[in-house]
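Session log. Operator J.P. requested a structure for one protein chain; no other inputs attached. Running the standard single-chain path with token output.
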Amino acid sequence: MLRLTWVQPEDLLGHELHQAAQDGREPWAIAARWKAAGGCEASARAGASPQRASRYLRLLADDLLDELADLPSRLAEQEPTALEKIRALCPQWPSRPAGAHAQAPTRAALEAAWLGRAVGCLLGKPVEKLPLDAVRQLARSTGNWPLTGYFTARGVPEPLLEAHPWNRRSATTSLAENIDGMPEDDDLNYPLLNLLLLQRHGRDFTTTDVARLWLDELPAGRTFTAERLALRNLLSGIEPPLTARHRNPFREWIGALIRADVHGWTNPGDPAAAAEQAHRDATLTHTANGVYAAMFTAATIAAAATGAHDIHACLRTGLSVVPPRSRLARAVTHAVRLAGEHPDFDTVVDELHATHKAHHWVHAIPNTALIAAALTHADGDFTGSIGRAVSGGLDTDSAGATAGGIAALLTGDPAALPDHWTAPLKNRLATSVADLNGIGFDTLAHLTWSLIPREASQP
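Structure written below.
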């Protein structure tokens, strides 16, 4: 039986009940009706429940999803999705630079950023979906704690591997002994798509342009959560931005954040422009805090791309495009404070997990908080940043990728990244996007550099 994940109404309903409670609605009466009818809870780790629901439960789930969408939210005013309303709530919204960007990244810096994103993603792939305690036990069993190298199965006691098996899709390509180039991952597919987006439509692309590109170039089987539902909605004749809201309980998860890097790389020194591009991209699939996570990341990267700021200034710039009373802004501020207070990062992670225990492990709020904490605690150091981000045990490959891309960009040069991280990638990226399979990171850097406004670019 083909049990397609992230689309079954009976599974979406459980996630929507959680999302409704988090975004300020009152879903309790609907939750009681669902439970009384025999409906199941949302799966904590998998994308689908083991068995197909009855026809009655499936139809009921569709109806209840629509009822939940109609519930008013008490957070609507402080967590808008429309860009003009977001800007109105941000007193520190960045000013646009006058004339040319003073400092743009070199191709070497962009190659470092692409490599750093890939390395951080690769580090996190084998332990994606595993609980925090399992990540810690697996790393410690081989003396790799704190994380300073890729995970390995060599030397791990068999009972531990039986209790906590590696991510089945990733172990054959992402454990240290198996790495042979960078394997395909959605955390790299989306930056590739955004290169195509800017090549074809320029900096003034629309959300509809993003939708058309996805329909042309993005295999549905390579999408998950909010992105898979947005594609489903597009194929059902639903247009943006309703694609982000219609029966999509994952609209505040991490998917838009992992698409943000190119928007930052191509707007050096202009975090407002980076955030605005990220917003147009994100609103195909996400709302509110899911969109803010993308804007925060793009603005942080735009500041880092100039080479003129340390990680702490870059993160402050990222927060300047996020409504300060939003849940995301509060979570990031809290995470940065924890990272500054505790010398032991495990303590920071434990507190973040306790604070965000109601959120799914793929939700944007805890993951963005973890990324900010990791970068802060490591003071922007590359190995320290990716190790901390992955050791947080949330969406390990995505958090590692974003932290790695930012920290590597700050180094300014791929030669500054330790060879034991980059050499196994062999300057080769696997992907199912367009005709880019096997592309080198040096080529990606050149393509990205070519998309920066000419007055901002440097040789």
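Operator note: The chain has a mean pLDDT of 95.
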